[in-house]
Amino acid sequence: MTSGFSPGKAGGVIAEFEAAEVSLLRSLVSMMLGIVAPGETSDDPLERALGIGASEAPSDPVLARLFPSAYKDEKEAAEFRRYTEATLRDGKRADAQTVFDTAKSGRALLTPEQAQAWLRSLNDVRLTLGIKLDVTEEVHDEIAMMSEDDPRYPAYVTYDWLTYLQDSLVRALW
């Protein structure tokens, strides 16, 4: 794979991907679009207009990682979640859609805003995959010791590739 990012002009970033990589990225961000469905809001028209939603913490471990409680106190966390989660979901969906729309094979120039959306979305995809794989700090050692015949191998290699992409993008933006 020859993927990665490099600095572009005027704060932009050059993205370079092979067709198979684009297909994988689009598949992963499509998964994110499904996971981070629009936030539920109240039936009250004013609350709906303001994006005020549910206050319960998600029971799904992936959603709990993507939308962690902001406070240890359950009441404070619920109140904060009620006023922020629907908007946070919208932002994560917009970032994933940006990646889906701008992922192209070959070289492409991303605007600074698109590059930031990519960075946030790559982080969300990595967090999601990391939770599903139960990734620990020893993930690189696990991959190095894992047989290519192991059914988990493709998912772990994908996680490692996403880590590389995120690092590449941070360096390009830096």
Strands, helices and their partners?
Elements: E1 4-7, E2 13-17, H1 19-35, H2 45-50, H3 61-66, H4 74-102, E3 106-110, H5 112-133, H6 139-145, H7 153-173
Antiparallel strand pairs: 1-2, 2-3
Helix pairs in contact: 1-4, 4-5, 5-7
Description:
The structure is a single chain. Helix 1 (19-35) runs antiparallel to helix 4 (74-102) and helix 4 (74-102) crosses helix 5. This protein has a three-stranded antiparallel β-sheet. The relative contact order is 0.18. The longest helix has 29 residues, at 74-102. It has seven helices and three strands; from the N terminus they run E-E-H-H-H-H-E-H-H-H. With 174 residues, it is mainly α.
Short description:
Helix content is 62%, strand content 8%.
Sheet with the most strands: spatial strand order: 1-2-3
Major sheet details: 3 strands, antiparallel
What is the alpha-carbon Rg in Å? 18 Å
Ends apart, CA distance between termini: 23 Å
Count of separate DSSP helical elements: 7
Order of helices and strands: EEHHHHEHHH
- Overall structural class, as computed from helix and strand content, comes to mainly alpha
- Measured by DSSP, the beta-strand proportion falls in 5-15%
Name the assembly state: single chain
Uncertain runs are: none
Protein name: DUF2017 domain-containing protein
InterPro entries: AosR
